[in-house]
Specification:
The protein is of the alpha/beta class and 356 residues long. It folds into 2 domains: 6-177 and 339-355, Glycogen Phosphorylase B (Rossmann fold, 3-Layer(aba) Sandwich), CATH 3.40.50; 192-337, 3-Layer(aba) Sandwich (Rossmann fold). It has helices spanning 24-38, 69-72, 80-97, 115-118, 137-144, 158-164, 204-214, 227-234, 250-258, 275-282, 295-298, 312-323, 327-337, 340-355, and strands spanning 6-10, 42-47, 57-59, 106-109, 127-131, 152-155, 172-173, 192-195, 218-221, 242-244, 262-265, 287-290, 304-307. The strands form 2 sheets. A 7-stranded parallel sheet has the order 3-2-1-4-5-6-7. It has a 6-stranded parallel sheet with strand order 10-9-8-11-12-13, sandwiched between helices. It is globular and about 60 Å long. The N and C termini lie close together (11 Å). 49% of the residues are buried.
Amino acid sequence: MNTALRIALIASARFPVREPFAGGLEAHTWTLARALRARGHQVRLFAAPGSDPGLDVTEIPVHLPALSTAARSDVSMPDGRWMEEHHAYLKLMLDLAGEGGRSFDVVQNNSLHYLPVAMAPAVGIPVVTTLHTPPTPWLESAIQTHGPGAVTFTAVSEHTAAAWQPLVPAARVIRNGVDTARWPIGPGGPHLVWFGRIVPEKGPHLAAEAARRAGRPLRLAGPVGDREYFEECLVPLLDDDIRYVGHLDRRALAALVGTSAAALVTPCWDEPYGLVVAEALSCGTPVCGFDRGALGEILTDECGLLAPADDVDALARLVDGTTRLDRHAARDRADRFCTLESMADGYTSLYQELAA
């Protein structure tokens, strides 16, 4: 029998967990918190200041510790942002290792920081860490302080689980899900769409180039995560056909995606999952992308076409064929493979096992 659990959900301290989201990690964390609460669990979200007040949020106190002039003059001093996050997570984990941890049955770590992993054995209750990225040196070193057995790991895709396999041999795959009711199927339209964080590794400039070569208008949406990249690499490509429409809230973004002929997904790194793929499919919008990371796990030939990594010409040649794919087949793939219910089932089952 499933029982209600008390869950501490640790988010990234870098961006608030609220709409419009800074990226897929924040969107996933918000969605997971709401899904677990809807199932009757008590969820306290530890997140950056400014997070959604509709959730039970405890702010992670991100601030630079008071340092003396002598300490600041040390040429080996780390970057201020690094210091802020280090002390924020250090305080949080010390609290959970003390009286604070007695309020919970399980800790779900959705941050990308090393301290929740390194300090997990001190907490005294099960700690689940979801692997959202390829291996990083800080997280690998944290795992090696006590071995993978002290933390239960999940991975957002088979691809990500395989990337971590040498160090984390038994990560359970629980794919990110989307609330398909919040991403309704749309009628399509004449333009292509690219959406996500505007940073080099997401490759929006390649989407712009592919759309131009395919002779199709393109709408780009998302937060500017790298201003220099945006100004130097993307702005010169914008015109009446290739437009940046800003950082949209979820409702406006779903409407844009649902009225698009196809979504371009152009990662310049091995995408660990690709939440935008699931969101596009939920809107009935087929995907035309680069075959990198986990995209091939999500897509089938009925709902998306993939070009070799970084091959803009090949991507452009696939656009017309992608726009002719059945929108209902795309939505059906989302309903069968990318649902919120499936994700919530996976996490709830794991938590119950650990709590027992």
